[in-house]
Amino acid sequence: MQTSSPARLLRLPSVLGRVPFSKSETYRRIKAGTFPAPVRLGSRAVAWLESDIEQYIQKLAQESAK
Q: Superkingdom of this entry's organism (predicted)?
């Protein structure tokens, strides 16, 4: 039986450390629907599911290999 690890949330600085673009470009891509949307944690706090960011990075890698 395989146990799954709990979902981890990444704040913006961690996300920006993993993707090859700026904060502004990240939010442009969210608005365009081409980057995972964040999860709202509170009135002024958001985070991203680590699994969503990892899938996005995998997708970028696959597209660049074409």
A: Bacteria
* SS3 assignment for 6-65: CCCEECHHHHHCCCCCCHHHHHHHHHHCCCCCCEECCCCCEEEEHHHHHHHHHHHHHHHC
Residue 54 tokens, joined: 């990892």
Contact (CB, 8 A) for 51 and 39: no
Domain boundaries, the chain: 9-64
- CA angle in degrees (0–180, nearest 5) for 11-57-42: 20
Mention every residue, 6+ apart, whose C-beta is less than 8 A from residue 44.
none
| Overall pTM surpassing 0.90 (yes/no) | no
